[in-house]
Amino acid sequence: MPLATDESLPSNYQEFPDGSILRMVFHNFLTYEHTCFIPTQNLNMILGHNGSGKSSIICGICLACGGSPKTLGRSEKISDYIRHGCQEGYVEIAIADENKGPQTIRLTLRVGKAPEYRLNNSVATQTHINDLRKQYNIQIDNPCAFLAQDKVKSFSEQSAIELLRNTEKAASDDLDRIHRELIGQRVDSTTIEDKCVSSDKAVKHLEDEITKIQPLVENYRKKLALQSKLRLLEKKKKILEYEEADKELQDEKMKADDALKEYREAENSVEDCERRKKILEEKARRERSAIVDLRSKAMSCLASVQEDTHKKLIETELGRAKTRLDDARKQASNHEQKVSEIRDNLEAAKRKLEEAKEDAVGFNEFKIDYDRKEAKFRAMKEEVYREESKDPFQGEIVSLQNKVRSAPRTQNIMDQRLNEMRRKNEHAWKAYTFYLENRDIFKGPVYMPLMDIILKSPEAATLLENSFSIRDRFMFVCTNKDDEKRLNNDKVTWRINTSVVYDDKVDEAMYEAKLPSQLRKVGFDKLITECFDAPPPLKQYMCNVSGIHKIPFGNISHENMDLASKTLSQFHMEVYLTPRLRVCIMFFLIVSNFICRLLSNHPSILEILYKQKKEQEEWKNRIAEKIREVHKKQDMMKQEFMNWRAKLHSVRKWENDIRKYKDDFEILGNSTVNVEEAEQDYKKAERSAVEKTKKMMNTMLEGQKQVLEHYREIGRRSLISAMCNTKASRLIVEANTHREKLLELKDMKDHAENHLRAAVNKKKVARNNLILECELQNLDEEAMNVTEKKVWEQLNKMFKEAEVPTDIDTLTQSITNERTRLKLAEDSGEDGSEDHEQRLAKLEVDLATENTKREKLINNRKNLHDKLGSDIDTWKKGIDEMIEQINKNYIKFFEFLGCRGEVSLDIPENPLDIEKYGIMIMVCFRKGESMKRLDNKVQSGGERSVATMLYLLALQQLCPVPFRCIDEINQGMDPTNERKVFEIMVGLWNGTAGTLSKTQYFLLSPKLLHGLDLRDNVNIILANSTLETNHRNVRIHLIKVFELKIFQFYKTTSKLDALFAEMGIAA
User: Fold this and answer.
1) pTM recorded for the entire structure
2) Which of 127, 514, 552, 888 could bond 524 through an S-S bridge, CB–CB 3.0 to 4.6 Å?
3) Nearest Cα to 950, choosing from 975, 974, 977, 931?
4) High-pLDDT (> 70) share of the chain, %
């Protein structure tokens, strides 16, 4: 292919899209003496070392298209672009146009003269060139399409607002036009808002005047009203006191009646038990007597039958008579013995009863003393609890903790820290000073490791220094996202690092972790988190970024290091510290005094704090000891009371035993055995034995029947007697239970009667007050006379109109308040007059007029805001769609790098402030960190270059421009990111499909990376304008060779290296 000339065009120039560059000619322009450059319609990669003239090509394109030197970021004097030592130079470009043919623009520069533009060899003005540029949509003033070398750095310095405007220009003229129109509408709404503010001030002025006069007028009226209301409240209070006293009296009457009723019921129960017991005992006695008679009759009948039956019957009858006689004698002897025994037991029980009564003497005095001491103990406990609630140390401890957290700026330690911060990081110092001076506008606390860490020991400074990075010491840790925006936004003059740790994300188990027992056995003492104190959000942040909750410390000898490492691996810990080493694949510990010097100054305050806490603990122990002493005395009193109860129980027990012995004695007395009668019966039996024997045979059958009938009746009566005895025993127990209950009910009855007498006296006092204050005898309307009813109705009406409280406590508080108000009104000296009332009326009329005017302005403002808000929503919908497409590509590109990034719309606090909308770019290049806003003070130069290039790539498909220029975007990139970014660019631009493959690109770079996917439609140009004159032919040959698409002929690296060697250039 022949070398390019000043008139050459690409062979396929008719296929170039309108606005593409067909040819560039430079003559005495910057580094070039004279050269011609023929680009392709796709990707043109211009390579060359620094100072080789790559950027001169970009400068020539910009100036030839009517651009300003300011766009380039270089000299703003256009004559400085003439080659050094020359008086004149020019740059010429040919632009593709399918209908008109190639359009040639030449810019001629002369020293001391204005630049001259020519369009197709005809003189033109810069305005004509700008119109032509707009016709082809060439955006050389938009960094999204035209990014010169010296503008790469300033791209990330664009404000969010500027970035949005440039993105709109690049992506959509309609969105840019609508944006400008909305800004105009916002100016109109601002005018209305200013009028509303003026009207608000007028209303405020009138309200202030009314506020000044109202106290004078109201105070005059108020004193009369207060006096009247106070009297009304006093009347209501007396009525409520009377009602309360009456209700209390009724309640006490009911309680006294209930107590008396229960007492009477208990008495009746005791009497009923005694009556029923006597009936049962009498019935049992009759049954026993009947049984004796029946048994005697049965025996007589049986004897008679036996006597009538046989001779032996007579003998048997006599023997039985003898037996009965013996039994009677024996029973008589036993009866006397039982009577003697019961009499002895009765006498002993009486003695025991007397002893028990003597022991129980003094119980009433003890009961009175017990109640008094019990009340005293309750008062002592209440006093101790009140003393406990008034913790004398808590206030001082809280104050010391606040001093530790945020001590006054005059304190020496804070001054030292702030001075150290100012020396190390002035931006952080400015931000922290702003936070201290404006703490009230922040929604939550903001922490910084340098300011808020409290070390527990001198060695903790060295441990923390080797566990926590220097960069993170100046990190601002917020607990609220809005606070982070207040500290780190476009308006502030400082550049700081911030992070947000929400309260619900704080994991106490993490930052309060304790050293496992297995590690203590190896020789470790504690974790790094145990070496210092800090607020939970700050400690959580330090655990998140540095993992200090997984770094143990201990005096591990060299011999135990292997054992320590094996034990640590069980807990997934990779680092540990010793007094002289930081062990992590044998890294040596580097000791620094930075934290030690700054963070170990708190122990003086901490010692006081710990001392106060210790004294508080001792004080609490003394309070607890007092409570235990009171409980001990109460237990002793209760034990003594239980002893008295046992003595009273003993009295009742012996009384019951005496009654039982008396009953047994009575039963034995009623069942005496008559021995003489038994002897007589025996004699009669002997005399009648013969007669009965004779009659027995005749009456045997009837006699047997009578015997059986007698024994049947004996069994029935024996069962009845046993049942009566059982029931009588139960009634005795039941009667004793009722007697015990009767004693308790008597105390309750006496207590209720005392309360009743107190309630009667209270009602008398309340009734006297009611008569004096309200002129009413009582509150029963049926018992009132006509005058009292009228007074009562009038009072109720007044109470309702004045909304007088019906609760006595609220009413008492209202009376106190009214008295205070009356006293204040009397002491204020602000007495109003009729003139003040007239002045007040006029001001109120003026205020109503101004309020009407203000409402109209507010309605107008609302209508403008509604329309503006609707238009902004429509515009924002298009912006959101545009940013969504950009963000989708941006996220994809960053994921390809293994990082995170996103693009979003930055919406101002007031959505109507259309001029404050912007685009916010958030990036994160390290794992474990949160995304931060793209900023030249936060990210490094390489990181900003990567973020800038990826944003431009994400914008490409939305930006319909004929060509784009990007100059050395890879400055500062690390090799890995540089290659990935180039792979993304080349992959997007050198393809054969898609809109991006049909756009002309000029990519300037100081080097060509090996291994890129460079296809036939990629044009590589090697620029080197620094060769000496004797190398001119070599330079021109080199440029022309690369203009011939060397990759079309040299498809392998070896052939390309051979070409460079032939030309005398090192590969």
Assistant:
1) 0.39
2) 552
3) 977
4) 80
